[in-house]
Amino acid sequence: MYGSKFIPKQKTMFIKYLSVFLMAMVKFALAPPLAYGVQIGFLGAFLLTLSGFMTTVLVMSFFGEKIRIWYKNRPSQKNKVKKVFSKQKRFLVRVWKRTGIWGIALLTPILLSPLGGSGIAVALGVPKERIIFTMFVSGILWGLTFCLFLEFGTSFL
User: Fold this and answer.
1) How many structural domains does the chain have?
2) Does residue 2 lie in a domain region?
3) Burial class of residue 152 (count of CB atoms within 10 Å of its CB; 0-12, 13-18, 19+)
4) Residue 29 is part of which domain span?
5) Are 107 and 117 in contact, with CB atoms under 8 Å apart?
6) Alpha-carbon distance 141 to 123, whole Å?
7) Cα separations (Å) of 8 from 1, 3, 70?
8) Gap between the Cα atoms of 52 and 143, Å rounded
């Protein structure tokens, strides 16, 4: 409802853009459908999705190690017994050994979250510049794939 007497048009557009940006920060794959649902065009959806994704990647690249140490040393985590070998950890180790950072980066938007993928890369000791570059390429590829599908592929369904 644009330009209603209670909410001006600019505010509703800002809320739509912000919601897509924040969704991309948390779960990349859900941001393009959200953008499509709130009627943001192809270019806007792509740019908001990529910028939200890369914001999380940048924050995790520069502060990920500090966040990991803080999370590990929280009082609720100190006495917790963790599974050493879970199915998810085994899968990620297999991906890492076979494909390296490129495998993690390409799986981040669809299987992991931006927080998870960049956090794993930081924990594995990948240099910041490499994390940022590979995640940027992955974000462009998956962002274009999702946005193009929603722009043109939905007419075939």
Assistant:
1) 1
2) no
3) exposed
4) 9-155
5) yes
6) 24
7) 9, 5, 42
8) 11
